[in-house]
């Protein structure tokens, strides 16, 4: 890992503006935050954030890909998400130093922009707009957690699989009626919804037979409309 001087300029501003936490912040406040960012680089298979340890930084991905994981009660690694360029993680560390709730590991070399908790809190105290943006993001996250809990508790594996593929494809460009996920294996899907690879294989086959799901190599094409 290497650390350089604080990163400024258009790149940092664009990265911050794409994050929900800062989407409603004024240009002046955004420039202040951008001036506090530090660039960090990590090699492939490096753990950036470790579950259970306190954190002091939030990270924005400028290059590369990471996976977000959590250990099950049996000690198995469960994949929660994949993040690519423009993705961000660790933002709750900006508000407190509670233990990280998940781990983040690089899947390829990555370049990140890091913001420290100390610098962020100093900026937060001076900006009502920034404070309101934080509140709005926390409310959104609470709703998302409620939806995920409901999905894991009550939906069948088939419905959880459809929900996961929709979520992973929702940010992709192209046909507004159908979206494509990143490359995924059946094992990765199984880890993300908490089931077995064999079950996912059967579910994917059935979704294709239903005409709901199509495959392009290792990528999945899904409809955006609810069925």
What does this protein look like?
The chain is α+β, with helices and mostly antiparallel strands and 227 residues long. The protein has two domains: 2-152, Jelly Rolls (Sandwich), CATH 2.60.120.10; 156-223, Orthogonal Bundle (Arc Repressor Mutant, subunit A). The chain is built from seven helices and twelve strands. It has helices at 10-17, 27-34, 117-124, 128-154, 157-169, 186-193, 197-210, and strands at 2-6, 38-42, 47-49, 57-63, 66-71, 77-83, 88-89, 103-106, 110-116, 178-180, 214-216, 219-223. The strands form three sheets. A five-stranded antiparallel sheet has the order 1-2-9-4-7. A four-stranded antiparallel sheet has the order 3-8-5-6. Strand 5 (66-71) and strand 6 form a beta hairpin. Helix 1 (10-17) packs across helix 2 (27-34), helix 5 packs across helix 7 and helix 6 (186-193) crosses helix 7 (197-210). It is globular, with a radius of gyration of 19 Å. The model is unreliable at 2-8 (pLDDT under 50).
């Amino acid at each position: 890992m290497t650390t350089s001087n604080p990163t400024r300029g258009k790149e940092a501003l664009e990265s911050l503006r794409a994050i929900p936490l800062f989407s409603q912040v004024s240009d002046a406040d955004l420039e202040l935050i951008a001036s506090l960012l530090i660039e960090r680089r990590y090699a492939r298979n490096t753990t950036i954030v470790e579950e259970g340890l306190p954190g002091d930084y939030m990270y924005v991905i400028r290059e590369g890909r990471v996976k977000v994981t959590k250990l099950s009660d049996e000690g198995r690694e469960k994949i929660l998400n994949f993040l690519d360029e423009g993705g961000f993680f660790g933002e709750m560390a900006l508000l407190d130093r509670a233990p990280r709730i998940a781990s983040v590991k690089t899947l390829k070399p990555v370049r990140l922009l890091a913001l420290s908790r100390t610098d962020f809190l100093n900026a937060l105290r001076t900006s009502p707009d920034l404070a309101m943006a934080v509140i709005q993001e926390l409310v959104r996250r609470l709703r998302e957690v409620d939806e995920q809990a409901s999905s894991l508790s009550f939906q069948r594996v088939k419905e959880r699989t459809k929900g996961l593929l929709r979520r992973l494809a929702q940010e992709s460009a192209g046909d507004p009626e159908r979206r494509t996920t990143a490359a995924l294996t059946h094992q990765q899907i199984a880890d993300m919804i908490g089931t077995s690879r064999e079950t996912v294989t059967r579910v994917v086959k059935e979704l294709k037979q239903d005409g709901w799901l199509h495959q392009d190599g290792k990528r999945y094409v899904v409809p955006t409309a609810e069925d």
